[in-house]
Amino acid sequence: MLGALEDHLPIPIRSVSSSMSKLFCHSHLQTMISTTKHVKRLLDMNTKRVTSTTKGENFAINR
């Protein structure tokens, strides 16, 4: 199927798909990195909030 299509197209499909996957991987990585940073920031905010609360509230939050 792919071979038959490749014969008719000026650009080989395999190179296009590989560059597309590289592009997708790159954008996916960027998304992962920004998400990780965001989650880390949220966690930092939460730990600050937890440490500022009293022991009883801290226990309730951890459960």
UniProtKB/TrEMBL annotation:
It comes from the Eukaryota. This is Uncharacterized protein.
